[in-house]
Amino acid sequence: MPVGQLIIEGLAMGACYGLFGLAVVIIYKTSEVVNFAAGEMAMFSTFIAFHVLTFYQCPFWLAFLIALVFAALLGVFIEFFFIRPAKNPTLLGLIVITLGAELLLMGLASWKWGAEQQAFSLPVSYKVTYEPIKGFIISEWAIAVFIIAAIIMTFLYLFFKYTKLGTAMRATQQNKHAAKIMGIQTDHVFVFAWAFSSVIGLIAALLLSAKAILDPQFMMEPFLRAFAAAVLGGLMSIPGVLIGGAILGLLENFLGYAWPVWKPITAFVVIVLVLCIRPSGIFAKHYVKKV
Amino acid sequence: MLKVKNIETWYDLIRALHGISFEIKQGDIVALLGSNGAGKTTTLKTIMRLFYDLKEEQPEKGTIEFLGERIDRKDTSAIVRMGIGYVPEGREVFPELTVLENINIGAYTRKDKKGIKDDLENVFHHFPILKQRTNQQAGLMSGGEQQMLAIGRALMSRPKLLMLDEPSLGLSPLLTKEIFGIIKDINEKDGVTILLVEQNVNMALKYSHFAYLMENGRIVRADKPEVLREDNDVKEFYLGIATEQSVKGYKRYRRKVRFR
To answer: What was the ipTM of the complex prediction?
Structure first.
């Protein structure tokens, strides 16, 4: 059993799930809405990158930038036109709205790019491999994943901990009313959170697309895995999501190696088990409101 | 400084404020008193425009002027920027932020780093206990400390008018006294005008310069605290001092009073 490679591949996949889980967590952190459209938003933005890359023959970095901008705008658009017009919404209502947005985006993508499968090429390939230590084969793709995940996570950690806007986002999630009283424009905070989440989702989707075939459904499963990672991490804590992702990636890889048939359902078994044993996630810390 | 004219606020079909008018002069401590459900908190929330989510036109009628400018159609954050600080009922600190983060977020609307630093020192001067707890999670503090934190947080926006909603809620008499002392201090030393909403009428009358009495969404009395203190109705119904004797020589068991 090639343990070393299973570990590295598992961790790399886990980092992708964790990264994508971050996109879910950021929105959840500010508004307690689980964004089920996250997968399709990222898929749509990835298709934009693909489109620019193949039809306009742009260099990769330009396509990447265009897709980033598009992802941010898409996040803003969905917040502005789907979430905000809801009058006195309940959380459940908002979640259903995100489901609607998901279907809409998927429909649009199928209409524009068709349901047939496309190949998307990243500059980093998982076919180029190195073997620094015997038995540990690491691909270029995995290296890129680790570096990007580390950068984004550090950035987010610092952002939420030390910047004014980051603190305002946390404050808005904890008590929207009080946040308003502090002069925080909570509407702006929500828009920002959606844009931010959409951009991170796109990065995760680009990394994942190297391993998958591009079609309008390609982010469905990764989204569910990422959601599982987020639940594992408590849906709140940023390091928690990445650790959740890592655990999930490793479990999936090892179980998938031992019993390939069971690989796809690992994530869901994990969700169910976690929700049974620790409903608030492994790393959740929540204070009950004091009177 | 703050002029409220004839405002009406509705919760769906129920009118909570039946046309309220009052005025706050610069440098005063003004108390807004009344029993439960009188509309005190609703008044403050209307001034802050916190009902914006429910309905855009709130207050439905009347005007609110602050420093000569109408604020009854402004955004909450714009009102905060104009210099109204609000300490909500039940403190509402951010439980998972640290004490220091809580205080600093009070200065969210400000950009002058130096001024913020000075005000931080000022808050620590008023509430020394907060200085010892800067890195503690706010949700883990006691009720009194949370109240101090909420007031300190509101002070960080350097308000010209500070509105306090029941600062004594759930606090021991001793702590209430301490908080009121600090409120007085803030009023005198920092020159902040204060609007105080209270159920603890006794305390509020002791510390305020002017008081309004509310009942059923209306203001029924407006006078200096010394006068209200001696008023028989106020004495009986709010201060719990029953001195009145009926003509027959025994105390009437119960008397209903409507101030209208």
So the answer is: 0.83
| Of residues A175, A183, A291, nearest to B80 (C-beta) | A183
Mutate to test the interface with A, among B76, B157, B164 (most CBs of A within 10 A): B76
CA-based torsion, B23, B5, B154, B78: positive or negative: negative
Query: What Å distances lie between residue A45 and A109, A220, B242, CA to CA?
Result: 10, 14, 74
Q: Which domains can be identified in chain B, with CATH numbers?
A: 2-95+158-239 (3.40.50.300)
CB-closest option in B50, B96, B109 to A174: B96
Q: How many Cα atoms occupy the beta-carbon half-sphere of B172 within 13 Å? A: 5
Closest among A71, A53, A5, A31 to A204, alpha carbons compared: A71
Give Cβ neighbours of residue B247 (< 8 Å, ≥ 6 apart).
none
Residue B30 β-bridge partners: B195, B210
Lowest-confidence region among A140-154, A233-247, B100-114: A233-247
Q: Which of A88, A181, A188, A236 is the mutation pick for testing B, counting most B CBs within 10 A? A: A181
CA distance B42 to B83: 20
Pick from A167, A185, A290: CB nearest B105? A167
Q: Integer distance in angstroms from the first to the last C-alpha of chain B?
A: 27
Sheet containing B2-11, strands listed edge to edge, beginning at the edge strand earlier in sequence: B14-24, B2-11, B61-66, B69-70
Name residues 78-97 of chain A within 8 A of B (Cβ): 88
**What is the rounded CA–CA span in Å between residue A150 and residue A213?**
25
Helices (H), chain B: 40-48, 76-82, 99-105, 113-126, 128-132, 143-155, 173-189, 201-207, 225-230, 232-234
- Sequence-distant (6+) residues with CB within 8 A of B146 are A290, B91, B93, B138
* Residues in Cβ contact with A98 at an 8 Å cutoff, skipping those fewer than 6 apart: A33, A34, A35, A36, A37, A82, A83
* Chain A CB contacts of B51 below 8 Å: none
- pLDDT over 70 at A230, yes or no: yes
pLDDT digits (tens, 9 = 90+) for A157-197: 899 889 999 999 989 888 888 999 999 998 899 999 999 99
pTM, rounded to two decimals? 0.84
